[in-house]
Amino acid sequence: MSVIVYTDINNGEVVKASLEAVYYASKIASEKGGECIAVVCGEIDNSKLEALGNYGANKVVHNANNTTDNGQKAKLVQSIANANGASLVIFSHDFAGKAIAPRVAARMNAGIVSGAVELPQFNNGLVVKKSVFSGKAFASYKVNSEVAVISLLPNSIDIETSGASASVESDSTDLGDSRITVSELKTKGNGDKIDLTEAELVVSAGRGLKGPENWGMIEELAELLGAATACSRPVADIGWRPHHEHVGQTGIAIRPNLYIAAGISGAIQHLAGVNGSKVIVVINTDPEAPFFKAADYGIVGDAFEVVPKLVEAAKNFKA
Amino acid sequence: MKILVCISKAPDTTTKIAFTDGDTKFNEAGVQFIVNPYDEWYALVRGLELKESLGGSVTTVTVGGAENDPIIRKALAIGADDAVRIDTEANDAFLVAKEIANYASDKGYDLILCGKETINYNGGQVAGLIAEFLDYPFVSQATKIDIDGSNVTLECDVQGGSAALQCSLPMVLSAAKGMAEQRIPNMRGIMAARSKKLEVVSPSGEAATSEVIGYSLPDAKSECKYIDPENAGELIELLHNEAKVI
Ligand SMILES: Cc1cc2nc3c(=O)[nH]c(=O)nc-3n(C[C@H](O)[C@H](O)[C@H](O)COP(=O)(O)OP(=O)(O)OC[C@H]3O[C@@H](n4cnc5c(N)ncnc54)[C@H](O)[C@@H]3O)c2cc1C
Ligand SMILES: Nc1ncnc2c1ncn2[C@@H]1O[C@H](COP(=O)(O)O)[C@@H](O)[C@H]1O
Fold first, then answer.
1. Interface predicted TM-score of the whole assembly (ipTM), two decimals
2. Which of A150, A170, A190 is the last residue of a domain?
3. Which domain holds residue A41?
4. Of A136, B47, B70, B110, which sits most exposed with the smallest number of CB within 10 A?
């Protein structure tokens, strides 16, 4: 049984979350004794497609159409799944996956499980464990349809590379007319800073920092560690920090390897967006702050004294 | 402008998550249900703003049993004109979306708004499924929408930033933060909601494609390790040598 994996590209590069999806799909394919076939839509160098072999893809089907219409991409994925008799289609549960995966599920009459956190089990039909209640629990879903669509929660699995190379096939499926035109793509305006959704390390701060003028030390620490910056919701709401940094239930959910939170109380809605982080460090003057219950490392102290010490230590560490 | 807003219920954001029936069901005892925040704050309010500036109507649709009526009344109190409830258990996203698409298919809605995800199941699937079932364009995680005649301009979140888009009506979108500001219902709205129409319709009988067979909670966090604030710099070393994350 072949497994199809939609592989998203951005600026001529495969996005990191999609590499995880390719690896995940290849693990399922080898368990099922089938091929892992990556579908790529848009312009990208051939060498980068071959390199998907490194993550487990056996074959890459490439359609160079630069469309931004998720309806057209869904059509492409379905046509390649059908051509290969695939009954399992994998996505990353990232921006692209959220836009395309449900359309593919509707086209293929497929049950869809989004936000999978581990490989599916096959001993009792197809069962997939996914994150629910904003990271506070997991649910095991059994999919009862012939075709299944699974999207993998970013940063949920560890990937290993093999050094293999994938064969690349070009595809010219007619995708019909695009119904969506993009007039402008805006990067977050943070120059070459690390994108929060892809960051492995994140330094975040909240209302305890008293004002936007005090974020210099947070940015400095982030830069020294090679981390992205984030913030709590009130801080974004009052305009101390840009909205795209707001993490939590109503902002974005992240799952970095390290999350350092300074001057954030750890309200349940904030935790909902960060409790998937592997290691959590909390810096807060209040020993009763709820965040300490979710922390791996805690420093009960004033961020204005603690963070500069961390900056110093990070400098020494780098040197 | 005929607008349809998909509204679902979700446990209040402070709910303690627990399960019953051998960990196969969410324990609803004592749980306060709210309108899913993305549906209420962003999809519904933006729908109302568009109606206020362009004329037309805002209808809400919910798939589920009578236990949804209180949150539907809340949406009416905030300003929706009328509501529809499709009377079947909302077992999975596929079924929910198919029921909504079947209901909407011959009603001529120009715009269908969903939230970006429910905060209980975090699927983020229903909007895209509806779009495909109806063969409409779909914008996922939209943060802005403006309509001028049949010309729709939107902004949405994408990998690494945002995109400005154009598309035409009818269309479906899922709403993310940025779309609108939360509205608190006033007394007049609450009174008016009581007499607004909440139509209960029979489902078309779609089958679910998936089911939850069990829930589990994450492993308990190991004890927090405290570091003396005077020697805060030690943290960097621990993160490197012990936690191995830097
Ligand atoms: C439906 C709903 C959704 C929500 N969604 C989100 C969300 O997505 N994300 C989110 O973040 N919030 C969200 N919230 C808000 C959330 O409930 C909290 O109000 C918010 O997270 C608090 O932000 P904060 O910790 O920065 O501020 P505060 O609660 O004011 O906490 C500040 C903390 O800083 C500490 N402090 C003060 N001075 C210092 C110092 N010098 N050094 C160190 N520590 C110091 C204090 O002890 C305190 O713990 C939501 C709320 C609701 C109702
Ligand atoms: N039972 C339901 N009835 C009506 N709309 C729903 C229902 N469930 C989900 N939705 C809508 O679909 C969006 C995404 O839901 P989900 O795919 O379950 O995360 C929600 O924000 C709602 O707008």
1. 0.92
2. A170
3. 3-170
4. B70
